[in-house]
Write a structure and sequence with these properties.
With about 450 residues, this protein is mainly α. The chain has one domain: Growth Hormone, Chain: A, CATH 1.20.1250. About 80% of the residues lie in helices and about 0% in strands. The chain has 22 helices and no strands. α1 packs antiparallel against α7, α15 packs parallel to α19 and α18 runs antiparallel to α19. The chain is globular, with a radius of gyration of 21 Å.
Length: about 450
Amino acid sequence: MTAIALEAKTKKGMKQILGGSAFGNMIEWFDYASYGYLATIIASVFFAPGDKTAALLSTFAIFALSFLVRPIGGLVWGHYGDRLGRKKILVLTMCLMSFSTFLIGLIPSYERIGILAPILLLSCRMVQGFSASGEYAGASLMIAEHAPKKKRGLLVSMVPASTAAGMLLGAIVTSLLESMLTDSALHSWGWRIPFLLSLPLGLIGLSIRLKMEDSPLFKELESKTEQSLVPQLGVMEGIRKNRKNIFIAFGVICLNAVGFYIILSYMPTYLSTVLKFAPLHSTLTTIFTLFSYVIMLPLVGMLTDKMGRKPVLIAACILFIVFTYPIFALMSMGGAFTILAMILLGAILACNDGVLATFLSEMFPTEVRYSGFALSFNTGNAIFGGTASYVATFLIASTGNGFAPAFYLMAAAVIALFALIKSAETANVSMIKEEEPVIAPFQEVANK
């Protein structure tokens, strides 16, 4: 095959990988985020009437409980992702997420079936959480293991960008429903629409993912394993050998988990319940934030290809520690100040989120890369991400301080900063171990 033909095939393959990984990830996170944007309505539909704060806390408790399965899912998906390949796991996670989200849209209200309603809701959320635990890591690795080293930061940043795009799509759909439907229609049937949309959207994502080629690094490892040239580590043995990196990754993820779910998922609730914005205004403000956030993430990815991963991640920690409280004060001023404050928080988070997936992909060797990434990422999100909305609501209710979430963000940034100090730069590290001198097809073209 000529160099020109190989380059054309490579470009087509890279587009297919980006489309299957990023577009599928966007759809999954549209499904997952819809719950957060509709939290106040879900609280009234699935829980007994009376105490609105108790119902909202119960809604966020279910949100948090669904994260408990994510470390387990990280172990399961990581194990099979390192054994069966990235593509097969991404196909399975797409099926599980779409179907479980679709079922949420069919669950009758508390008024009709009583306590069974929140039980069914929790069951579907647990399946969603199990699915999500394999999605982000798998999509990131699929791109990272195909991408040329000099563009890896940019290309892998498409995964968090697609995550934010899925949340942006959820926010847009929610705002359209809030603006077009009466309050009674929204509470009776309108809230179900985003969940029911998950089935046709999931089928589109599935058709794209089925056309993807699996990672060339995984294929090479699979071939060497079959020839007994490389020992196949068990998942627990792989974790034991890489426990230092897993602990470091966990510490860095603390900030990402708290920041992501407070800034991009909890904020519509915060704006409406604490700052007393109208629900539609809260959602529209979040849309502005997400739109700017999606644009910033690839820019951060490009920056890390020039500067490295560690300096940008450290800068994000320092910015959160220094500026979070002043930004919350700015937000409380209302109007354009709130929008500016949200965009600033999103910009700082982008400095973390735009590089984290690349950083985690580069930390682990091929044979345990999925396991190490998925376990650390999902454990951090289970402990800090899934509980972020609940903790923020609880802190405000118990202290009476509307800025309480700011202090929580700052504390998470301190933890991440200490973890980063112990970490090594990964930008110039090959994703292929020296004893496995393999060059991926996309890297061949990049090196010519």
